[in-house]
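Note to self: keep these together.
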Amino acid sequence: MRSVDFVVTFQSENEKAISQIDSVNKLAFNLIYTNPLRSISIADENKSFAERLGYQQGFARSLSILGSAYWARAKYDVSMTYYLQALEVYETLNDIQGLSSCYNNIGEIYKKTGQMSRSLEYQMKVLQLYDGLDDLSLPPLTLNNIAEDYIYLEIYDSAEYFLNKALDLGKKNRDLRAIAYVLNNFGILYNKTGRSELSSSYFKESIDYWKQDNNPRGELITGLNQVELLIDAGSLDTANKMLKLIFEKSEEMDAMDLMVRSAFYQSKIDSINGTWEEAYISLSEFERLNSQLKDRESESLLLQLENEYILQKKDKEVIKINNQAKFNRFVIFGGGALLIMALLLAFLFFKKFRDTEKLRKDLEEKNKLIFEQKAEIQLKAKQLGDLNDKLEDLLRVKSNTLNLRLKQLDEYTFINSHRLRAPVASIVGIISIIKHEHLGSEGELLLGHLNSSVEELQKVVDEIGEKLGNDQPHN
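Structure:
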């Protein structure tokens, strides 16, 4: 009788713990867009509790919430790590809703990093999960995200089709968040296709739904889209006022991606107004914030490199959770066979862990070697490039010097051939004329000396001409 009471008490406590985990996950999810840091803290503790209890559904949900909270802080690499871990658990549970959420969120990360085709690929995986099921079971957010991908790819007909479908499902399911996203994207679509009046009305309606959903981040996103529309329409004062409020709220929420976008629009407004000093300050602020955003992403690059190892580790942790759950049932029902199975699983777990560790270390060594070889090749390539540049500079200088010398030689050849020969020939002619005159003995003597000098000069000119090669200048 006591053993039965123990079993009933244990089951009751276990159900309470599961209910508590679900409630805490709900709280963490609701804080994602209002206080992401608090959401991360709560979800991380809840994840550990669910893991110890062996509650895989709650464990996976906590991982997914952590991914969304880091996504809200623009730490996309960390976010991807948690989504992939959650995906692994949902696959073991064959949980369609959980898998759908993970595929959707991973697609959104690829969208944020500009990989639209990759994003669309993951969103389509969600549709494959629901293939053959009732359309009402489709998640409207996924349809909205597919439409958003098509907008960025400028396939507007497909975008409008999926937005209409998403809006219909969102309203039938009373999904305020999905409706707000869809209306926001309708605004973006109509702005891109030149229908600004429709765009403005959809943005306003979207903000109303964000407020009903208590989602301040969504309000800020749509607000920034309104600012862009106002700038295009020339309503700079209104856009400027909205922008200052959006930036302040983004700063309070530590929404770095929204702060970057706000700073960019501010610099654009200042430039249009012709306030160049303010435009320079705004642009500098944009560059500073954008640099910080990139720094945030680079801080998590190591986590990205460790994704595979972490996933393998989490696989082992899931096995460990299963083993613990089986051990609990053994304590309750006294199943000796379950103990043997647990020991066998523990042995397999240890063997797999050891093999995985060895493989990881081998991969790390190979990656290190490849990195060193790549760095050495890059250094040699740089040195070779520098040497080539120096040789080219030297050849250029030598070529210029040679060309100058050739030009001088051509000039001298020309002088010798034309300008020097002409006076000599004139003197010879004059001497010929003077010879016919009666100069007396002294005059004829001087004339003879002059004639000899002219002949010697003529020989020198002819000799120079022969050594220079020809009478024409070089071309």
